[in-house]
Structures are given as C-alpha cells and as structure tokens.
Amino acid sequence: MAYLEQYNWDDIAPIPQNDGGENAVAPIAYSDEYRIAMEYLRAVMRVNEFSDRALKLTEDVIYMNAAHYTVWQYRTRILFALDKDLCQELIWVEGVGRRFTKNYQIWNHREVIIEKLGDPSRELPFIESMLELDSKNYHVWSYRQWLVRRFDLWATEVPFTDMMLELDVRNNSAWNHRFFAIFGRAEAVLSSVVDDEIEFTKSAIFTAPQNPSAWNYLLGVLKKSGRPLSDLEQFCLTLSDLTKTFPATSSSTTTSHEEDILSARAIEVLAEIYAERNDFPRATHAWTLLAERYDCVRENYWNFKKRSAVSRLAGCA
Amino acid sequence: MPAQTALAQEQAREQTRSLFAHQRHARFFNFHIRMLPVQYTTTDTVRLAFVFFCIAALDTLGCLPYDDSEEKEDRESYGLPKVSEEQCAAWRDWIYDTCLLPSRDAFRCSPALSTGPSADTDTPNIYDPGHAAGTYFALATLLILRDDFSRIDRPAMMRFLSSCQRADGSFATGVLLGSNEHFGERDLRFGYCAAAARWIIGGDEIPGAAEFDLEAARRYIVAECVAYDGGIGMGGFTESHGGLSYCGVGTLELLSRGKTAPREAVAEAMGEEGLQELVRWCLMHQTTVADEREAFTDEEESESEDEDEDEDGLSLAGFNGRFNKPSDTCYSFWVGGTLAMLPSRTHSTTSALTLSDVRSNAAFLLQKTQNTLLGGFAKCPGRSVQPDALHAFFGIAALALSADVAREEVGVEEMKRDEVWCGLLGLKGFDGALCIPADAVRYAEGLRRGWREGYV
Predict the structure, then answer these.
(1) Cα(B268)–Cα(B270) distance, rounded to whole angstroms?
(2) Measured distance CA(A144)–CA(A165) in Å, rounded
(3) A193, A284, B87, B208: which has the fewest Cβ within 10 Å?
(4) Of the listed A56, A84, A102, A306, which one is catalytic?
C-alpha cells in the first residue's frame, strides 16, 4: 500500500465498486488491499488525474492485477504528462514481467515506451532473461519480432535460434523465429541459404526423428522456396525404410523391420510423395502403417487420406 | 442363451459406470457463481468471461430452466439441481446493471471498471470504454439466459463493434473514449468476439447499420496470420497456436454464418490446400503421453509414471496448443472446436473433428484432468493441480463436442454401454463456433428471424 503511505489522499473520495449488492454474480473474494486500491484508482481515473500519487497507485494495482485492461494506458499518459524517466520505467516493467510471465499488457506497454525512447539497447538482454524463465513464452517471442523489425536487428537472429535450438531442439517457438529470421525480411532469400537451412534441419531431425517442429520447418522451407517434396524421398527412406515392407506380406505391417522405422513423420512425407506421383499402392501402404502401427491416435485421419486418394483415383478414371 | 442371463447382462450394461462426475461439476459451478476465491483477482477485469464460463457450463450440464434440446430426456434422470427462472432473471439484470455502458452500445468486461457510484449516475469515462470481449461474453450469456436484447441499441452496437476494426482488418479490444486510440493487443481474439457479437445481435441484417470491412477481416486472417506449418498465429510470422487458430477460424465462420452451408465459408476462405494443412495441423496436436515423454526433458515432465493407457486399458490422448508443449484441457476445446468448424474437405458436410480420436480425448479429460472430488477440470494432469473455472468450462465444452461426434458416429445405444460416453449423454449438444449450447443458438436464430421480419 505504498501509494497510501507515501501520499495524501484526503481530497479524494474513493469510488466503491457497483457490484449489484446481494445479486452479485461470480463476485471475487477481494483482499481489502486490492479492493481499496481499486476504489482509489476509479476515483483518479474518473478525473484523469496525472500525478505522482496516481502513478504510484497504478504501480500497486498492477502488482495485484497486471491484466487490468486500461490501467496501463492511464499509466502511460501519466508518465508522458509528467515527463518521467522512461529508463526507470523499463527497469520497473522488467520486474513486473518476471512476476507475471503470462501477461499480455506488459509487452504492449513496453513497445510504447521503447517507441518513445527510440533506443532498443536494453531489450535483447531483457528478452533473453525472460526466455530463460520460459523458453516458449509467446508474448516474449512476438515482442522480439516487433523489436527486430522496428530497429532492423536482423543480424543476430539466426545465430540466436542456433543457440536456442542447441538448448532444446524441440522448441517450436525457436523454429518459428528462425523461419521469421530467414523469410521475414523484404529481400529474396538466396538459394544457398535455403540449401543450408535444409541441411541444418535434416541434421536436427536425425537427433530427434519424431520432432514435429523440425519436420514442419523443413516442409515449410521447401514450400516457401518452391522446391518439390520429392527432394526429401531419400532422406525419409533413411529414417523409415518402407521398401523392405512393400509389397506388404501378412506379417510385415505389424512385426518385422521395426528397426528400420525411426520416424512416423518420414512415413507421412513418403505417403505424400507417393500420392503426388500417383503411386497409390505405396501411398496406401504408408498410410496403413501409420494407422495401424506408428501413429494410431490419428488412425481416422490416415484412413481418411486413403479414402480420399481412392476417390481421387476414381475421379481421374 | 437363457433369457435370464441375457436380461442380467442387459442390466449390467445399463449400469455402466460413468466416468463423468456430472453432479460434482454442477456443484462446482453453483459454488463459483456465488463466489470466486481470492486467486481470481488477476481476472478481475475480465469478470464477464467468468460469469459466462459458469452460466454456460451450468447450461451445458442441463441445470438451467431452458432446455429445448433433443437429449432433454436423457438428462431428466440425473436429478440435477435446477436454477430457477427468477435467478436467471436476476443474472440478466445484473449483467445490464453493472456492465452495459450508459450509451447502450457496448459492455465493459467487468463491474470493476465503472467509475460511476451507481448505474444511474454513470457518466462516460476515458478509461471505461466498450470492450469487444466483454460485449461478446455479455451477449452470449444473455442468449443462454433467453434475453430478448430489448435493452441494447443494436445499430449503435454495430457502430461500436465496427469502430474496433483497424485499417489492416484486425480488431482491437476497443477504442479509448474521447480519442481514436485503439487499445489492446493485435491478435485474433477480439475479431472473433466482434464477429460473434455481430451475429448474435443480427448486426449483419440491420438495414443501414455500420458494417465491418469483411474482406479486410478475412484477408488479415488468411493472408497475414497463417503460419508456415498451416496453423494460425497472432500476426505475420508469429507461431501457430491453438487458441488463435480457433479465433481465426471462428471469425471466418461467424462472418458468413447463415449465408453459406455450414463450414463452406471457412473452406472457401482458406482454400483447399490451406484447409488441408490446417486440418492436419490441428490433428497433429492430439498427443499421447509417449509423444510428450519424448518431447520433454526430465524436469518438465509432470508425472513420469503416466502411460497412454490408464489401469483399465483406456487409451488417452489430449491436445496441446503448440507443438511440443504438454496437453492442456482448454486445447481439447480450442483445437477440437477448430476441427468442429472445419469440413474434412471442401464441400464435405462432415466435420474434421471426426478425423481425430474423440474417445481418447474424452478419456484423457475424464481420467487425467477431471477432479471427481471437487468437480471441475484442471489445466493439466497432476495431483497438485487444482481445478479452475476456465479449464472446467472448456473441459465440459470439449466433452460436449466429442459427445456430439459420438452420437453421430457411435450411436446413442452404443454410447450407453461405454464408460467414456455414457455419462456424456447428459450434456447438451454444443455449437463449436459460438461456444454455447446448440439450443441457445436455435433461440438466437428465432430472434434474428423476428428482427428480420420486424424490419420488413
């Protein structure tokens, strides 16, 4: 309750919450501290007071409820009206960010402050410390994208994702950021860069053959750069050699050749490659393996793929 | 087979043990609608969301006096405590008295924002603007409570909702009064809320009323927010996400609702390839514990003894919201609800939810996140995780969607003999796009018809 201790509020009549009295629906069992702070906040917001005491009050309210949807706008207006030290504000927000890692508003606020300061130098270290707390924090990664675009900080980004993926090759946020870092710029991406990305991702898949993030990235890079899926055929066969189980014998789908199958995702890509070249027996074999053995939770989907292929074939005939 | 044995077997089947703690959930929400514990303080300014969760859950469970659903009889035998008509009227009044702005064109999202000492002396305040999500939650709740919306200025509400749209097609939370300053994050949640609110008040059919830039709204979702993996994120190049995919697809669906066959508009906006990629993206988020065990390092893993089957051999598989994240109750709804809005392919009348494993999903929720003692659902498995009202509502909503698929695919008779399904027969049919029971949507269609004919 620093705002009450440090400042005089005698001239302010707190505004209690109109909660419909006894009819209140889903009322929250507020602490007295929060209830009273909100009563003062309503009173100063009502007259749009820009003062030190109001600034302190927003601080206390934010510490109890950082998700308040207009307290941040109010705080920003006070900061700008009283010409407050914005670097000080950034340091304060860092504490709030660490305390409320799931909060949306903090990042909006930070954008406004950085925009006004025009200096992003504190930001990358702060972001990295936030990612140490939660390496998949959606708001933090989105904020990093804004920052990179706004201040043209592209040079650091691919190496940064190298580091993040080294720590956790399954971090989907880091893969997404890598896609942004490579394809998010205005200029065209060199063919050699695409080659490097494909190789980089293939080796990541070898370390974790089922990792959906790396597979999606690989397929995304291929599509974005207009390369055919069939480029991956050999790679997929290395991970899941379907040639040994095709044509299927009665036992081959269920028992033998387990050691040749490292990745359900490789089987899926092979099925697509076969279907694209109208090799439906092979495609169907791959989908059957997925449905019955290697990806049973999606059995309905793989059977649907089979049915779709059959009806497509019938449609062509 | 002797007739007696067959009869005994029949009786045994009829007493299939239900895994769904229907009564406990009813009690959970009856408790929360009277009092949210102190830890809900961080949700204070989105209080209407929690009012909605409680009332929508009670309705889905069949505890409200309004029940026009086909499955009504299944529920009668549950002996559930019914909320009275008077109570529902008091809830309606409370929403209007504490959250409708004096301009009658929008709702705030919580009584906590109002700076007037009472509704009568309420004067506009810069920091107490209309809130797109508050407006949706209020309208959806009022719809469940069979309100007629006569207290709202519908054309003015369309002006408010349209004012939330930015030039790029996206929607803000609202506009700060006395300025043109949009506030709130740039993501898809508020577009969804605006699209749902527009449909509920028949805003697409009010002659001369303000209207969204529909093309810009669709373009923003399809051209900006679809990620390289086929899912939808909060903007260009952001990570695809279950909740945002739901909001994006829900917006596409609701902006065209009633104008095309169900699911046709979404398929058309996404294109066949985009549709197939999004369907795949959603299905790939259904995860077994084995997937999760591979994905997480030791310190992240919640319960190492978890298996893909429980002790009775039930197969379990929930949904996560991003790749390589753990399953979470609410994504059973966000991703499941997205699938429910998508056709399995263009022009198909079958929802893509039928392509997932709805039974393993339901079993995951029932066996891993349902709290059979306190009622409600927790965010994730684990003995130390308490149920909360948000996850409890989305758990029930996801189960209702799953049960709708099972009614079609498995059949009611078969469901009665299945421990996963039998208890879920008591849930109301559910509308995945508006996120409310289907009979409330039918009521809304009646209101829309009335307005349409009234204007002619």
Answers:
(1) 6
(2) 16
(3) B208
(4) A102
Residue B205 belongs to domain with CATH number = 1.50.10.20
Res A260: pLDDT: 81
Question: Nearest 5 degrees, angle CA B388-CA B390-CA B396?
Answer: 95
User: Considering A84, A110, A139, which residue would you say is the last residue of a domain?
Assistant: A84
Residue-wise pLDDT for A97-150, tens only, equals 999 988 889 999 999 999 999 999 999 999 999 999 999 999 999 999 999 999
| Residue B32 in tokens | 């929360």
Enclosing domain of residue A317 = 232-317
Domain coverage including residue B166: 3-455
Q: Is A226 on the interface with B (CB under 8 A)?
A: no
Query: What's at A287, amino acid-wise?
Result: W
Q: Sort out which chain B residues have CB atoms less than 8 A from A30's CB and list them.
A: 38, 41, 44
Domain boundary among A55, A84, A113: A84
Domain count, chain B: 1
Within 8 A of A171 by CB-CB distance, chain B residues are 324
State the Cα–Cα distance between residues A52 and B97, nearest whole angstrom.
Answer: 34
- The answer to whether B109 contacts A18, with C-beta atoms less than 8 Å apart, is no
Q: Does B312 have pLDDT greater than 80?
A: no
Instruction: Report how many domains make up chain A.
Output: 2
